[in-house]
Fold these 4 entries.
Entry 1:
Amino acid sequence: MRRWWFVVFVNVGLLATFLGAAEIAARLVFPCTIASASVPWSFVPGLGTIHKPNAVTLDTNQFDHCAEQRANSVGFLDAEPPSFDAIKDKLRVALVGDSFVEAAQITPSDKVQNILRQNLAAAGIDASVVAWGLSGFGQVQELALFERFGVALHPDVVVLVIVYNDLKNNS
């Protein structure tokens, strides 16, 4: 009978050791598993809920992506918007949209606005690309974003990113 308890004790100990080692290895390989999503929000009358200005946002599914970004001073996950005087002699491009423009799940260098900036620069075009986008917004809210933030920059080109779910978000 004592031998049986010894075998159980050793097997349980080995199992606990193996599971503990597997947990440590998983946390090293998938560091996002210990992180939890953190999105500080701020309510803006006439627009709705946007990112809290200058707050750090962490978006993760706790498995294969973990993106930490800082919102700019107006509450969007993009570079700080320039003043009109700083960009008046450049081509001015405004991107307005929903989660595809916000792109909270990816690194800033992979966002559409940054890739557009790089491609325009590679083509020799001096341009300012500014983006305003939030998940769940439809065209009504996107128009309000543009009126509030984009009109002051007098963009030469406005790209309204419309995805099939935007039509549903309008209602």
Entry 2:
Amino acid sequence: MTARTLDRARLTFGGVLRSEWIKLVTLRSTMWCYFIMIVITIGLGFLLAATGPAGFGGDDGGTMPAEAQQALWLQTATLGIGFTQLVTVVLGALVITGEYGTGMIRSTFAAVPTRLPALAAKALVFGTVTFLVGLVSIVATAVLTATVLPASGVHPDFGDERVWVGALGGAGYLTLIGLLAMAIGTIIRNSAGGIAAGLGLVLVAPTVLQIIAGVTGATWAQNLTSFLPSAAGGLMYGYPSDAADAAAPPGPPPIDDAIVLEPWQGLLVLAGWVVGLFILAGVLLRRRDA
């Protein structure tokens, strides 16, 4: 075999990307997960728009401040994230642990001996598709609910860039949470364990700490909750407005001296979780056998 033939046969990062794309889109479970995400986002948003805002504003929208109306519109568009994030965690873990379960990971690492490009390509493909699916579902929900909300006295303003920034933040949150689960799956290398650990970090840990903070009033528990992935990342798709806070449903009273993060700080915290776990996953991926 000539040197030119070897050069043509050498696998490039583009080839690895195409391989990971084929793996992702040819699995029925993947397509079903993305379909479920879209249905949940649109369905819950439309349900809230049709029933939730009644009584908050009059037919002319005069009772509710304009910013509060925009905040409520964004809330209907992103309501499903609380549920679709669980689907994203499961899918993110399965993207990598499924290959360990079937043994395909050996073929992947045989084709890409350095391993890290395969992990990077898998994360890039999965993250891009998840972001697009999340963004399309949120924007579609915002457009559809905008036709229903005026009946309840809420008049969406399509020129408000803060709503669309919130939509981008919601899609980004779903993407980062999915990548977080993928990194955990790479570390654990087991589907059940990866899903359990991902859901535990995203869903169980905040609930436990909130219970502790609510019962004991412990500041440390509230502060620790603020730095968990779901709590910090949840700030990415909120509407930045005092009127929006006034229109939000009542919650537990704030704890004195508790840390309150800004949306951009929440993004950095969640990104830090993802980067840190991927660094650990990359180190273990190079050291352990397939």
Entry 3:
Amino acid sequence: MPGMQEVHIDEISIDRLASLLDDHRVERMVENAERARELLDGRVVWNVNATASGGGVAEMLQALLAYSRGAGVDARWLVLEGNPEFFKLTKRIHNLLHGTPGDGGPLGDDEHEAYESALAPNLDYLRELVSADDIVLLHDPQTAGLVEGLRETKASVLWRSHIGRDTTNDCTDRAWTFLRGYVEQADATIFSRQEYVPDWLEPRRLRIIPPSLDPFSAKNVDLSEEDVATTLQHVGLVDLPDGGSLDFSRRDGSQGRVRDLSDLYVAGGTVPRDARLVMQVSRWDRLKDMKGVMTSFADHLARMPEDAHLALVGPDVFGVSDDPEGAEVLDECLQAWKALPAEARDRIHLAALPMDDVDENAHLVNALQHHAAVVVQKSIVEGFGLTVTEPMWKSRAVVASKVGGIQDQIVHGESGLLLADPTDLDAFADALVAVLSDPAFAERLGTAARERVRDQYLGDRHLIQYVELFAELL
């Protein structure tokens, strides 16, 4: 029987968060940590998802579980084994839950059989590990088919959806029809927003828990200007002066050092040192609309300040196992870039960052977000959008679509700018010009953005909500 991948998680003391919190929040966090230790003594909290890297869910799990272990909870993380047919099918469901048809394929009896067959070895593996006292937290559509089989172990089985759409349509209805028989058997379900919850779910078994950001991870820790410059210069992303350090801290506390990387740019050359960088960092996913960002910037190039450059940054498409569309979307963006006039190609850059070292990848993204003048997230739909939370924490001015959890994070005109219609490329360009043309305005947005993340989207709130849910279940 094939084994599932277990992701190693090192302990991180919750005391580290205390330096960012007021006394009341520290006291509440400590009280709930003690409650969790007593409540979960002798139990394992299993987390199961589809990938160990690439995307906000994997990053969030790494931080939350490390703090959980630091608080004395036996939290563990397993990653599904799946075949290409399974991941193609679950990507279809992912797109449908976002309200788009994706590849247009069916969701009938054959798909149910393929889905359950791919999950069967994983279920057998889990049954050998999970005991009746444990809690199993399953993440996203890839894992929903495990609910019934795991409940037979007498463990508490929870299912969490990190994705959704503000309003339903035929596509979302198709996806939920496929998932309903699996999901409604869970002891509790968790969503990031109330709007994502299907109307057939029982309210008593529902919890709304928004995601959170770890301010001390390699992606979010504060970096000096010198270290940012040296890192970006070393890997050829931005032509900046040397003089800082290439070292970074890994999640396990050890030190890493940025490697000699090359060919990170799929299109466009190194960003000039005097350029102000507009940047979107996300998966190569049609719902993130990287191509639309590029088209808007290119079509309105004459309105942009002369020193403005655009970078679209995503993962190496061979490093994200559960996203078969990535290579197609990156190629679409590349072909669109090649069709642009030369003056636009000179100011637009496409980069694919390696995923074989997740801590190094996070450090590179961190350096880019610190360097950017404006960070954008022009998603057509979005589950929550940690790619917005991250630059907000770094006091960047953010321009993003008013969709999903992004609209919960940003107060328009105060902690960022929201685009009412993500498909309106003219309005998107207007927002970019407004921020780039007024540095003082951009600075005000960035300052308010960091405070909003501190108030609402750090891990203490997230952990406490889980403790309260576990207490009710047990």
Entry 4:
Amino acid sequence: MRHSSRGPLPAALAVAGLAVVAFLTLGPRWVIAPLHGAFRRGMDTLFVSAGASMPWDDERLLNAVMFVPLGAAIAALLPRGWWFVGVLAGAGVSTGVEILQAGVPGRVPDAADVLWNTIGAGLGAVVVALVRFAAALVRRVLVPASPSR
């Protein structure tokens, strides 16, 4: 297994992803409600301008989108074959958030949020895995194998 140093960017993105998730999921409702409303309006505008209606409740979409960067950043931190840890980490963080929400006034824990958050983390992790797979395939095709001795 070849493991190269990935530098500080994926780690910084993972920390930023965790910070954003913590803020959006554990912040007080009076702070988060305007952001939530802006997201809903943006999604409505996006889908209507594309001539479509929302394929599912945009609350689910919000939960998934929020965890995509986290799953991608965690997958990018790890060696290529370990992308699935981004999915597991997303599920773990989401479960922790839902448990903590029980103690935040105005927040309601919901098991469905864990599912949609995990789907988002999984999407981010899979994108990283696919990009890495494609890059490895291109390298294999473009870089000739070294002759054996």
